[in-house]
Specification:
The chain is of the alpha/beta class. The protein contains 13 helices and 12 strands. The structure holds pyridoxal-5'-phosphate.
Length: 368
């Protein structure tokens, strides 16, 4: 009898279900024999990498035989200059997902409690469980974070709280006043991870800017990503902003070369490519509204979103059925059964043409 290696690990890992990413277009095309699919499944920037970023990537390729700058000096200084940050408080990650993992590894051990919201980003329970810590999932309020209820779940075992603003997959958000009220009431030793992966898309006055709160709240760690509005999902780069001591602790577990040379070079240029960012943000503002109205006109309920995606309730509550019907027509969206939302699907906001295609195919599938 072969050895059962699952017994060599802890219960958390034994019971873990791997994260299911959006299906890559190439895979769908290969499996279904399609040629022109549109991927609206992973909230990527539909306009792709900008010409100025492409150019610097070409240059970076010329020295890709060398290890990257382990300190990320240039990108950190670029971030500090753009957002008026202190360089000693920045940690770079292989995508912000790596940072979420690092933060938890630094502060959470088996038996500790980690709080997050129902319908919160799936990385939070996965990371928590991978450390054999206790998942404290707090029921959502209208699909969004119920911050006051989350406060009531804090115990002396609570080490960390994950918040996503806006949240994925629901697109909900909490205001600056709600966030600061939460932070003011939280015991000061509990680490708060504020995941701002979609913040660049938000255009609301009452929306908090986590970077501006780190001075005031030493237990706050803000994470951001180059994968969404900055269009670098394939390169894997994100950053965290937190007080110096937390940053130092994160740096102890960080793999020296966690961000590769192409990602460092591309992110530095993307950060200052204002035209590309404005294009993505403006398109999203118009098209989010249009897709939402398009869905509502088909009699479909939507969860109000401020991200670059929208989650909707499927007719007959059959998310997987509709997902598959769209898939064979070459439109890839995201099933949400993993989130206990099997009756919903999430669609990313694409270019105007992609959105037209999505709405057309959807209305044909619903009519047939
Ligand atoms: C996409 C996403 C991320 C970003 O992940 P990267 O590792 O930076 O690509 C983080 N948090 C949420 C909520 C997301 O949806």
């Amino acid at each position: 009898m072969a050895c059962d290696f699952s017994l060599q690990t802890h219960q958390g890992i034994r019971d873990l279900q791997p994260y299911q990413p959006g299906k890559p277009a190439e895979e769908v095309e290969r499996e279904l024999g399609l040629s022109h699919t549109i991927k609206l499944a992973s909230n990527e920037n539909p306009f792709g990498i900008s010409p100025s970023v492409k150019k610097v990537l070409q240059t970076a390729l010329d020295c890709a035989e060398l290890y990257p700058d382990a300190s990320g000096y240039r990108l950190k200084h670029a971030l500090a200059s753009k957002f008026s940050l202190s360089v000693d408080r920045i940690t770079l990650g292989n995508g912000s997902n790596e940072l979420l993992d690092m933060i938890a590894r630094v502060f959470v051990t088996a038996g500790d409690e980690v709080i997050y919201s129902q319908y919160g980003f799936l990385a939070y329970p996965i990371i928590t469980q991978s450390l054999n810590a206790k998942k404290v999932e707090v029921p959502a309020n209208d699909w969004g974070h119920d911050l006051p209820a989350m406060l009531t779940k804090v115990t002396d075992k609570t080490k960390l709280v994950f918040l996503a603003n806006p949240n994925n997959p629901t697109g909900t958000y909490f205001s600056c006043a709600e966030l600061t009220s939460f932070l003011n009431q939280l015991p000061p030793h509990v680490i708060v991870v504020l995941d701002e992966a979609y913040t660049e898309y938000v255009q609301l006055d009452d929306f908090p800017n986590g970077l501006k709160l780190v001075d005031q709240y030493p237990n706050l760690v803000v994470t951001r990503s180059f994968s969404k509005a900055y269009a670098l999902a394939g390169l894997r780069v994100g950053y965290a902003y937190a007080n110096e001591q937390i940053t130092d602790l994160l740096n102890r577990v960080r793999q020296a070369f966690n961000v590769n040379a192409l990602a460092l070079a591309g992110a530095e240029v993307a950060l200052f490519d204002d035209a590309a960012l404005v294009k993505a943000v403006d398109n999203n503002a118009m098209q989010l509204q249009r897709v939402c109205e398009g869905l509502n006109n088909l009699g479909i309920d939507t969860i109000p979103s401020i991200g670059n995606f929208i989650t909707f309730v499927c007719p007959d509550n059959d998310g997987l059925g509709l997902y598959n019907r769209l898939l064979v027509r070459g439109v890839i969206v995201r099933p949400l059964a993993n989130y206990d939302m099997a009756h919903c699907l999430r669609v990313s906001i694409g270019t105007p043409e992609q959105n037209s295609m999505f709405l057309k195919v959807l209305s044909e599938e619903l009519g047939s």
